[in-house]
Amino acid sequence: MRLGEVAKAFSGYAFKSISFADSGIPVIKIKNIKLGYINLTDVQYVDEAFLSIDEKFHVKAGDILISLTGSHLTQPGSVVGRIAIHSQSNGLCLLNQRAGKIVVTDQNRCDPKYLFFRLTTEESRYSIASMAYGAANQANISPSQVESLEISLPPLITQQKISSILSAYDDLIENNTRRIKILEEMAQRIYREWFVHFRFPGHENMKMVESELELIPEGWDVKRLEELVENKKFSIVDGPFGTQLHSNEYTTKGIPVVRVINLSYEGHFIDDDLVYITEEKFQTLIRSAIYPDDILLAKTGATIGKLALFPSKLGKGLITSSVLKISPDKKKYNTFYIYNFIKNLSDKKYWEKISLGTTRPSLTLSDVKDIKLLEPPNEIVKTFHSMVEPFYDSLQNLELKNKTLRQTRDLLLPKLVSGKIDVSNLDIDVGAIDA
User: Fold this and answer.
1) Are the C-beta atoms of residues 219 and 365 closer than 8 Å to each other?
2) In this model, does residue 205 exceed pLDDT 80?
3) 129 exposed, middle or buried (CB, 10 Å; 0-12, 13-18, 19+)?
4) How far is CA 278 from CA 155, 294, 315, in A?
5) Which residues neighbour 338 within 8 Å (Cβ) at sequence distance 6 or greater?
6) Distance between CA atoms of 325 and 226, rounded to whole angstroms?
């Protein structure tokens, strides 16, 4: 049947650029729609007054979203027609134009969760993207084209069983994501308590003295960031310039290349859109190599100030010219101290203020090397490191589990939807699972 027989597709609300703000109600744009999920790490907001717009532009848990603009099939990470489902943890959002929503209108024939999984199969994604018109980087599809998509639906009870099986994976991923957020918040809270409000262990007996950074505890020093890294010559560097790295040199496996798209203002490392180069190419660009727990910082344009810790699971990698790395002095156990210091500066205006350029601000290596920060006594930094290191270990383990869960779910998905795995005889209490 045609999708339009059981569902309705429509585009989001046409917000004006002057309406966007730094806080308020999140607005989902096409860039926030990833393959299977919504990513709000780089989101814009509008005033709560916009909640009065038609409720069809509200996005709630379980809503199916689609990118109506994107690239052609040659670029999977940004391809037009990406399908995602809005999770409970994202809360209430609003929908921007060119980000679409698909609403099931006949739930007697079509289970909404099943439809989401059906649309995320490679077959459906290819069919949707093949309808697109326009340039390679600006391909478009209309809601009516989405509704014209031909789909096959098994009996409703079979749909519900399949969606219940696959939803179990998504529920685990959602739970792990919440735990990751809590761990990040705990680390930042301890950092601010100790190094911003100076309520560290033993602070009661500490005398405060004047410094170029106002009052600080006696015995603490003010240093340039360059003085706290492992090796001044190679510990704050940026990626290759000019003709040293081209997109046509990217491969499907090998050494990961970190681009701005892999960073976020919250500090998440996003590995969904990783690209790779060969070991041979990596060796020619060794100056821009990165290793576990290097701090990565976006240095140009609209993304300035995005950051992440390079995860240990990837071993080593390379940064592009729009990213720079900071390698803390691991002998001083100050990796998580410096990372949280930079994360605490995550106000984009701060980075724009210290950078060069007006229309397109850009951080230079000297901008970053000259950032002033406190150097507490090493025993305090080491104690902080020992407290938060388990948080980051658990965080990376949870991210790895989520990746494994997604891979397993994605392997099951086409087999379940195509009927290669028969669920008709499975004793699944659909009502109990949904509850």
Assistant:
1) no
2) yes
3) buried
4) 48, 21, 14
5) 225, 228, 295, 326, 328, 373
6) 12
Domain boundaries, the chain: 3-152, 154-194+378-435, 221-375
The HSE-up count of residue 92 (CA atoms within 13 Å, CB side) is 10
Residue range 156-172, pLDDT digits in tens: 999 999 999 999 999 99
Assess contact for 183 and 388: CB atoms under 8 A. Answer: no
User: What band does 55 get if pLDDT is binned at 50, 70 and 90?
Assistant: very high
Mean pLDDT of the chain: 89
Instruction: Read off the pLDDT of residues 367-408 as tens digits, 9 standing for 90 and up.
Output: 899 999 999 999 999 999 999 999 999 998 998 899 899 999
DSSP conformation class of 419: T
Which phi and psi (to 5°) does residue 252 adopt? -85, -10
**3-152 — its CATH code?**
3.90.220.20
Distance CA 177, CA 389 (A): 18
Topology at the third CATH level for domain 221-375:
Adenine-n6-DNA-methyltransferase TaqI; Chain A, domain 2 (3.90.220)
What is the pTM (predicted TM-score) of this model?
A: 0.81
Rounded CA separation 191/389 (Å)? 12
pLDDT value for 347? 61
Q: Which residues contact 232 (CB under 8 A, 6 or more apart)?
A: 226
265, 282, 281, 262: which is closest to 273 by C-alpha?
Answer: 262
CA distance 177 to 266: 13
Phi, psi (deg, nearest 5) at residue 27: -115, 120
Instruction: Give the burial class of 77: count Cβ atoms within 10 A of its Cβ; 0-12 exposed, 13-18 middle, 19 or more buried.
Output: middle
CB-side exposure of 346: number of CA atoms within 13 Å? Answer: 19
DSSP string, 136-188: TTEEE--HHHHHT-B-----HHHHHHHHHHHHHHHHHHHHHHHHHHHHHHHHH
* Higher local confidence (pLDDT), 435 or 132: 132
User: What is the band of 73 on the pLDDT scale with cuts at 50, 70, 90?
Assistant: confident
Q: What are residue 93's phi and psi, to 5 degrees?
A: -135, 175
Question: Could you tell me the strand order of the sheet in which 36-37 lies?
Answer: 7-11, 99-104, 64-67, 83-85, 36-37
